[in-house]
Write a structure and sequence with these properties.
With 326 residues, this protein is of the alpha+beta class. The chain is built from five helices and 25 strands. The strands form seven sheets. Strands 1, 2, 3, 4, 5, 6, 7 and 8 form an eight-stranded antiparallel β-sheet that branches. Strands 9, 12, 13, 14 and 15 form a five-stranded antiparallel β-sheet that branches. The termini are far apart.
Length: 326
């Protein structure tokens, strides 16, 4: 009888804890972050990707551990219950931060990541320009204003918490919305559509720093690339960057002024479907080192494993560092 009573109390406590959990607004920090569903076996199954800056609802209860596929292996990660567009999912706890789209700030230039609000407490990590992050209230230290930030490092696949200088982030109400519109303008095929989308971005409540960034981006978006400047290709290749673990960046447009959407690692078997007719001279990163050269850009098709893991997204790679078309 005592055992039964104890079980009833334990069950009641569990129900109280469950009832206390709330669904709160949260922001996806990872570029193309994943939403998951849980199979009857308890293992997570990939469901869909959503872009950085997307708002969803996430339970504020403690994250729970579950196994998920990752490439050709299974790993364990912490998950939270989530809702998006009226459907139930789970999301990895280290891919989100609680907040709304009103809390999103964006870096207006590359920024040093600090471990504390101290100019001497810098790290070797750089927060890239146009990065969505959640920022807190500023703190003054030795005449310099710092803000606490939460962001996802898409290069090293880790959520980072730290500080950056306040003058490195945007201040306008609609700054992140303007950045999202710029991304859409880059992907649009029609030049009139590109112009219209950029014009829409300028009508938003944006800071002066984002206005200047739009002016720079407008030049690059409209000048550097047109779909008419490409030719069809049919090239399959194995990425050979000399060292296991080495990689090159994949861009959303054939220009280093575009946004890095992913990485192509040494040993990947990829396929190119088109290339730019002309060439450009770029300073690009390979295995952590800068290289400058002249080459065409090649569009590679994205690849997803059988378990739904995105191995790499579709996008543009610089032919010189990729070792193709030379």
């Amino acid at each position: 009888m005592k055992k039964t009573f104890a079980l009833i109390l334990a069950s009641a406590a569990f129900i109280v804890v469950q009832a206390a959990a709330e669904m709160k607004p949260a922001i996806m920090l990872q570029q193309e972050g994943s939403l998951w569903t849980q199979a009857s076996s308890g293992e997570m199954k990939w469901a869909k990707n959503i872009p950085a800056g997307t708002q969803l609802s996430v339970s504020d209860e403690e994250p729970f551990a579950a196994k998920r596929p990752s490439g050709n292996k299974t790993v364990e990660s912490d998950f939270c219950r989530a809702e998006y567009e009226g459907k139930a999912y789970t999301v990895m706890a280290d891919r989100i931060a609680f907040g709304t789209t009103d809390d999103i700030k964006v870096t207006v230039q590359d920024a040093v990541h600090y471990a504390s609000a101290n100019i001497l407490d810098y790290t070797s990590t750089i927060v890239p320009q146009k990065k969505a992050l959640i920022a807190g209230a500023p703190v003054q230290k030795d005449g310099i204003s710092f803000v606490p930030v939460i962001w996802f490092d898409d290069v090293n696949y880790v959520k980072r918490t730290g500080w950056i200088r306040q003058d490195k982030i945007s201040s306008g109400t609609d700054d992140w919305a303007a950045i999202e519109l710029l991304a859409k303008a880059r992907l649009a095929k029609d030049k009139k559509v590109k112009n219209a989308v950029i014009a829409d971005a300028r009508t938003l409540s944006i800071s002066d720093s984002i206005e200047r960034l739009i002016t720079i981006e407008e030049y690059n978006i409209l000048k550097d690339f047109s779909p008419d400047d490409t030719a069809a290709q049919d090239i399959s290749f194995t990425a050979d960057f000399g060292t296991p673990g080495a990689y090159i960046h994949i861009y959303d447009v054939p220009s280093t002024q575009g946004t890095v959407v992913g990485r192509l690692f040494h040993g990947a078997e990829a396929h190119c479907s088109k290339k730019t007719n002309g060439t450009s001279t770029e300073s690009v990163n390979i295995a952590g080192e800068r290289q400058t050269g002249t080459s065409s850009w090649y569009y590679i098709e994205g690849k997803v494993s059988e378990d739904g893991t995105v191995l790499w997204p579709s996008g543009w790679i610089f032919g010189l560092v990729a070792g193709i078309g030379q």
